[in-house]
Design goal:
The chain has 13 helices and seven strands. By secondary structure, it is an alpha/beta fold. It folds into three domains: 57 residues, Muramoyl-pentapeptide Carboxypeptidase, domain 1, CATH 1.10.101; 64 residues, Muramoyl-pentapeptide Carboxypeptidase, domain 1, CATH 1.10.101.10; 199 residues, Aminopeptidase (3-Layer(aba) Sandwich), CATH 3.40.630.40. Strands 1, 2, 3, 4, 5, 6 and 7 form a seven-stranded mixed β-sheet that branches. Strand 4 and strand 5 form a beta hairpin. Helix 8 packs across helix 13. The radius of gyration is 22 Å and the shape is globular. The termini are far apart.
Length: 367
């Protein structure tokens, strides 16, 4: 794919390549070099299925995921490469199968990293085949052969949930990364919310990292690296959305999930649900629900991660709310409660919108 976005009305070799890919994926009957309404519909279907923004425009991220989607397990030898790691549906297929067989690949994210290589080596050792950490024909055949006789569950998701439960209800000692977006109409608002939340968390003994200062604008990769290098227990990203008109409004929360691979972050989904419920219970923001997405920030951050769109800069009502310091304080209280509820056991939990900051003493987060 070329680096320029492809959209309705475009034509040429790049569109022909796009349509051939969509045809191989079963989303298009006939390939064409003209980006017409049929191709646009196929692109939207692909974006919907892959947890992307459904725009019908093939931007850089959609082009990347289309490239990954064309690989099936066995098409190529999978191995750890540097500096760019191998990505694709074939990697995700391998990770999913190894995970079901009991080998720890971590998250099924379609990225062949060190943990996946180690899982391949452990599988090769157990299967009695040459141990090199590369998934070539012999390893693929061994994996597929064993998959026919072994029935697994979702150990990677269970490991994520057990790790969260094992940390206990106390917030003291946990590491939380706050990511106030600088890519919005008023970055000072997201930074203010992050600072307010940072103060509350630090007072409870949490180690907090912010991905940016008041004035800088780090790239996605820099934010991901900061979270991964901090050994975070949780990453919370804040943003303010925008739309082409002022009708769109409300709050939405996103977590990592890939329907195409049948995987999602158990803890991420749980926390996204808690965030969405607590904010809509305490404010009059419209509930735009939670959504599984495959954005890099959600996919490549090792810790459970959510992104919260706290309203629309294009909607006067949402912006009036967000510019009110008292409203932002309510948002912070909602997030504090959602964070604590994430770590509470079922018997210590409470109904949405009823738990208060003062109740957190009872949960054991303060002496």
């Amino acid at each position: 794919m070329n680096s320029e976005p492809l959209r309705l009305g475009d034509s040429g070799d790049s569109v022909a390549l796009l349509s051939n890919t969509l045809q191989r994926l079963g989303l298009l009957i006939t390939a064409s070099s003209q980006f017409d309404a049929v191709i646009e519909s196929a692109v939207k279907a692909f974006q919907q299925n892959r947890g992307l923004n459904v725009s019908g425009v093939v931007d850089e991220h959609t082009a990347q995921i289309l490239e990954e989607a064309r690989w099936k397990l066995g098409d190529r030898t999978l191995l750890l490469t540097s500096p760019r790691l191998m990505r694709g549906d074939d990697v995700a297929g391998l990770q999913s199968r190894l995970s079901e067989l009991g080998f720890n690949c971590g998250r099924v994210d379609g990225i062949f990293g060190p943990l996946t290589e180690k899982a391949v080596q452990e599988f090769q050792k157990s299967a009695g085949i040459f141990i090199d950490g590369k998934c070539g024909p012999s390893t693929v055949m061994a994996v597929l052969r064993l998959m026919k006789v072994v029935s697994g569950g979702a150990p990677a998701q269970l490991r994520e949930q057990v790790a969260r439960e094992g940390k206990g209800p106390a917030l003291a000692g946990k590491v939380i990364v706050l990511d106030p977006s600088s890519q919005c109409a008023d970055p000072s608002l997201t930074f203010d919310i992050a600072q307010r939340l940072e103060g509350r968390l630090i007072a409870l003994g949490v180690t907090v990292f912010l991905t940016r200062s008041a004035s800088d604008a780090p790239s996605d990769q820099e934010r991901i690296d900061k979270a991964n290098n901090s050994s975070a227990d949780l990453l919370i990203s804040f943003a303010i959305d925008t739309y082409k008109n002022d009708r769109a409004h409300g709050v939405a929360t996103y977590y990592y999930g890939a329907d195409a691979h049948g995987v999602h972050s158990v803890v991420g989904e749980r926390f996204a649900t808690l965030v969405q419920r607590e904010i809509t219970a305490r404010t009059d923001l419209l509930n735009c629900r939670t959504h599984a997405k495959t954005w890099d920030l959600l996919r490549r951050t090792k810790a459970p991660t959510v992104k919260i769109d706290l309203g629309y800069a294009s909607n006067p009502g949402d912006m009036k709310r967000l510019t009110d310091p008292a409203f932002r304080e309510t948002i912070v209280e909602s997030l504090m409660i959602a964070i604590q509820r994430l770590y509470l056991s079922a018997e210590d939990d409470a109904k949405t919108g009823t738990l208060k900051i003062s109740d957190l003493r009872r949960a054991g987060i303060r002496k």
